[in-house]
Structure formats: structure tokens, C-alpha cells
Write a structure and sequence with these properties.
541 residues; Rossmann fold; eight-stranded mixed β-sheet; seven-stranded mixed β-sheet; 24 strands; 27% helix; binds adenosine-5'-diphosphate
């Protein structure tokens, strides 16, 4: 027997309708690409998104068409995102940090019809426009007065384009399983793969992130999503924040410590989210200028492991709670958050830091387990590491235009991460499966060594790779970028690591380099490092 409840479709436009009607006065604030701060409210946001949808319909965009954006986090980007999705078209958020060949590949693979592009990226698109036959129109996210001279065919300023259309429009009606968003993974091996979110998965994921132990935004909060909308849905914030009636403050192109500090301060931001690199910039700016963070209450940090010094600095010096998060594009992206819970709330000092260094526990609607190479589930003892598998309604079941089956017979997706899970459900990533270091039959966590090493005075960035060793199969090589002007030596780093990591994890050697290569989502490209240090010989010792 089926239940007798309404057949209410979970589509993302319901989020905007709710926000405009019940939190219409809450603000959307943007540091514009042109410079000045712009502000309006959720009522205006909805009206402008409706105009975008109507204008796109006039352009001939229909259900299922792909419409791309290459843009920073701004009000205009959010209008476009809801406008596209509310029409039943698919918003393809492009990561401008991808290599040029990858950009050409994904735009053609997605067969994008229209491209909304920020002023910043016009030169980048101009350089490849002849290779983008599917794009019929380029809409530059600015007004006429800032419109640049451009070689882009059929280019128009966003405000001019929008001016011709009113908001007398109703959202399209379609099934909640309709595709809403498309985001390509950065593709460290092979071509990028398209993750295709549905309306239903986005709505459920935004409710998931609304759980108190995840982002848990309230209508009184002012939230600054620094993580870009092109980086896995800005970790759901552009959905979850209006859904909860919190104000949204958008950083535009200003990701440096000074710009972020200014917004945190002037907009009294109490919740924010970004990758560790961004926070390093902020913390450095605060120290250099002797500033405090009186309004900031909590920060969500993920995308890469959070270094110990970052947790200590935020929590001890600035009284800001760190929520360590882990996820991936395929998971919409949130998989875990590291909030304390009933059984861990009492932890203090070193025990508390140790728990916060773990990537956290899943919210309701994410299931996870670890398995060995044969697929047998491993114990949750906080030590045994295995392949991390996940399952849930906001996790990919396949890639766009790819036939391969990515789930096992019970519906689990292999994340490609190696992790352990403790008795209380807190998970810790120890490596990517491609990056594991196997020494004398045991696994060494490169992430933990890297994280400890960046706490050493003078170390800006650290990466650990496994290098062949005649006796131990592999041993860790630590590669370090020094802070500008610093002269820290290999002996000093080793002395610092002593006692902080297991003895047999101690790097066999340390090399200093000027730069470590990164992917488009800011991750260390270990493959490149392995190529560079391919024939590395450890000194006899
Ligand atoms: P995102 O960068 O948004 O997390 P990606 O899909 O680009 O999404 O990358 C996902 C991968 O990033 C994960 O599989 C994991 O290897 C790594 N990752 C994400 N968050 C963390 C974290 N907190 N600690 C360690 N690794 C992380």
C-alpha cells in the first residue's frame, strides 16, 4: 500500500521561492568583479532569476539543454544558476583553472549552448572560441558601461540582455529527477568526467547540509561561501543558505587574505567555507596586521586535509570553530564533517585536536564503509585502513555520456580514498589509493606526514611521495617549498617531525623545490611529482 501524501517534486526553484517569500528581506551581497560592493535581497534575487529563465527561453533554450557559466561567486552567477535550473536546463559550472585543452574538451562534451562568462575570463574564452562550435551566444556578466571590446561572436552584456525581459514567468514543471547541474572532475588521469546532479539530489543534499552538525545555517546567519560555485556546487551553500534564510555574501574574484578579511568584518560574517589554501592567506594577513575575527563563529574547511596549525590558530587564537569536512564532486560534494558529538564533546587539548584532524562523520543520508582489496568490510577500530566506499541519494550513479558502471552490485561507489573509521564513526583519510606508500608491507599516510610538516617554521607547503627502496619496497620522500625568505634545513624538519609521527614513517629524505604543481581544484599533483622524482635514489645510510 502506498502512502497518501502529496506528490511534491523536489526541484531547486522551490528553494528560491521559499527564500523570497519567507526570508525576502535577507541580503545577497557581492564584491563585484567591477569593484564596488553590490547588495539586494532574496526577493530581488528571485525576480532576476525568473528574468534569466524567461530570457533563456526566448533564446530557444529548452528542457535538458546545457548552459554554461565560467564565473566567480557573485549575485549574477547565482541568478544565472537558478534561472537555468528553473527552466529545466542544466547549469554547467566550468572551472576556469582547468587546462585549456580540458576546457575545450568539456564545453564540447557538454555541448553547451550558451556561455555566461565573467569579465575576468573573457580573454581565456576568446583564445579558444573558434574551437567551441556549439556555443551560440556569449553573455558577459557585466553591464554595458563595463563591456569590453571582444572578438567573441554574438557577445552581449548581461544587464543589456536581461533588460529586455520582465519577470512575468512561471518556473518550468518537470520531474524531480531531471538533471539540474553538470560539474566536471578535474581529471588527473584521462579526460575530465561529468558529474550530473539532479534537482532531487540537490534538494536532498541541501537539507543534508542544513543538519546542525554539517553547516547548520540559521536565518540569522551571514554566510560567506568562498569555495567557488564551479567547485562542486560551492559545497551546497548556494542551495542550503537561501533554503534556511541566511544572508549570502559573495567574494567575487577576491580570494586573498585582505579581501576576505574586509568582507568578514564589514558584513559581520559568522559562517564561512573554503579550502585550506584560502585560510592560510587569511591567517597570514591577520598576523601581519594584528587583527581579530570578532564576528566569525565557524569555518568549514575541506577539499584537502586541514593542517594542525590551522585548527590551533583558528580555535585558540581567534576563537573560531573549525569544522573539518571531506567530500568529492561525485558526492554533491559533502561526505563528512568533523563536529564534536555527544560522545566527544568533553574532549580537550591534544585529544580534541586529534579528533578535529580526522575528516569527520557522515550526516544522515551518507553511508560509508571501508573494505580490503577483496571487498570485505574492515573493522571500525580507528586504525585499520581500507578503500572508502559510499552510498546515498546525492552520490553519482554514473558519469555524463559514459557507459561504465561505477557502482558495485550493492550500489556502493568507490571514492578512491584510503581511510580508517573509528568506533564513533569518525573517518580519517590517509591517502588517495593512487598515492599510498607501502613500506615493509604496511601503509604510510602521506597526508599525515605532510600535515605535520607544514607546522614546522619556514615550511610553506609539503608533499610526500613513495619512492622505490631496495629493502622496504617504498619509502617516503618529503618534498618541501620553503616560505619566502626562510632557510629551514632538512635536519631541522626531521627534528621537528621526531616524535610527532611514527618512527618508521620518518621521511627517508627531504628535497626542497620552488614550487609544487597543483590541479584545478588546488590539490597537489602527485603524479607530476612522481614523474619528476621518478629515478630518485636514496643515499645509503
Ligand atoms: P573537492 O575538492 O570539492 O573535495 P574533488 O572531487 O575535486 O572535490 O576532490 C575530492 C577528493 O579530495 C577526495 O576524494 C579526497 O581525496 C580529497 N579531499 C577532499 N576533502 C579532503 C579532506 N578534508 N582531507 C583530505 N582529502 C580531502
Amino acid at each position: 500500500m502506498l502512502g497518501l501524501m502529496q506528490d511534491y517534486q523536489l526541484t531547486v526553484q522551490t528553494i528560491l521561492d521559499h527564500a523570497a517569500l519567507n526570508h525576502g528581506e535577507r541580503e545577497m551581497v557581492t564584491r563585484s568583479i567591477e569593484g564596488p560592493i553590490r547588495r539586494y535581497n532574496y526577493r530581488d534575487l528571485r525576480t532576476r532569476a525568473l528574468r534569466v529563465a524567461k530570457a533563456l527561453q526566448k533564446e530557444g533554450v529548452v528542457l535538458g539543454d546545457r548552459v554554461a557559466t565560467m564565473a566567480w561567486n557573485t549575485d549574477r552567477h547565482v541568478e544565472t544558476w537558478y534561472g537555468v535550473m528553473g527552466l529545466g536546463a542544466i547549469c554547467h559550472t566550468i572551472n576556469p583553472r582547468l587546462f585549456v585543452e580540458q576546457l575545450v574538451y568539456i564545453i564540447n562534451h557538454a555541448e553547451d549552448k550558451i556561455l555566461f562568462v565573467d569579465l575576468t575570463f573573457v580573454p581565456l574564452i576568446e583564445a579558444i572560441a573558434t574551437k567551441l562550435p556549439t556555443i551560440q551566444k556569449y553573455i558577459i556578466l557585466t553591464s554595458d558601461s563595463y563591456m569590453p571590446q571582444t572578438t567573441l561572436p554574438n557577445a552581449v552584456a548581461y544587464e543589456t540582455w536581461l533588460a529586455g525581459t520582465d519577470a512575468d514567468f512561471e518556473w518550468a514543471r518537470f520531474d524531480e529527477n531531471t538533471a539540474a547541474g553538470l560539474c566536471y572532475t578535474s581529471g588527473t588521469t584521462g579526460n575530465p568526467k561529468g558529474v550530473l546532479y539532479s534537482h532531487r539530489s540537490n534538494v536532498l543534499h541541501s537539507l543534508m547540509c542544513s543538519q546542525n552538525d554539517v553547516i547548520g545555517a540559521k536565518s540569522v546567519d551571514n554566510v560567506l561561501p568562498i569555495v567557488p560555485m564551479f567547485h562542486a556546487n560551492a559545497w551546497a551553500i548556494t542551495f542550503a543558505i537561501p533554503a534556511n534564510g541566511a544572508s549570502m555574501i559573495m567574494p567575487g574574484a577576491g580570494m586573498d587574505g585582505k579581501s576576505i578579511y574586509e568582507l568578514l568584518d564589514s558584513e559581520k560574517v559568522n559562517v564561512s567555507a573554503a579550502v585550506p589554501t584560502v585560510w592560510l592567506g587569511l591567517l597570514q594577513y591577520l598576523t601581519e596586521n594584528d587583527l581579530k575575527l570578532p564576528y566569525l563563529d565557524r569555518v568549514l574547511i575541506g577539499g584537502a586535509a586541514v593542517p594542525r596549525m590551522m585548527i590551533e590558530s583558528f580555535e585558540n587564537t581567534y576563537d573560531v570553530e573549525v569544522i573539518h569536512g571531506w567530500g568529492m564532486t561525485e558526492m554533491s560534494p559533502i561526505g563528512t564533517t568533523g563536529k564534536l558529538k555527544y560522545a566527544t564533546e568533553h574532549l580537550q587539548g591534544e585529544d580534541r585536536i586529534k579528533l578535529k584532524l580526522r575528516q569527520g562523520r557522515p550526516p544522515y543520508l551518507v553511508e560509508m564503509k571501508i573494505v580490503d582489496d577483496e571487498g570485505t568490510e574492515l573493522p571500525r577500530d580507528g586504525e585499520t585502513s581500507g578503500h572508502l566506499l559510499v552510498r546515498g541519494p546525492a552520490i553519482s550513479s554514473g558519469y555524463y555520456k559514459h557507459d561504465e558502471n561505477i557502482l558495485d552490485e550493492d550500489g556502493w561507489f568507490n571514492t578512491g580514498d584510503i581511510a580508517n573509521i573509528d568506533e564513533l564513526g569518525y573517518m580519517q583519510i590517509t591517502d588517495r589509493d593512487k598515492d599510498v606508500i607501502k613500506s615493509g608491507g604496511e601503509w604510510i599516510s602521506s597526508i599525515e606526514i605532510e600535515n605535520t610538516a607544514v607546522g614546522c617554521e619556514g615550511v610553506a607547503e609539503a608533499a610526500v611521495i613513495g619512492v622505490a627502496h631496495p629493502k622496504w619496497t617504498e619509502r617516503p620522500l618529503l618534498i618541501i617549498v620553503r616560505k619566502p625568505g626562510a632557510e629551514v634545513s632538512a635536519e631541522e624538519v626531521l627534528a621537528y617531525l621526531e616524535g610527532k609521527i611514527a618512527k618508521w614513517w620518518m621521511p627517508e629524505a627531504i628535497e626542497f623545490v620552488d614550487e609544487i604543481p597543483h590541479t584545478a581544484t588546488g590539490k597537489i599533483q602527485k603524479m607530476e611529482l612522481r614523474k619528476k622524482f621518478g629515478g630518485y635514489q636514496f643515499k645509503e645510510g
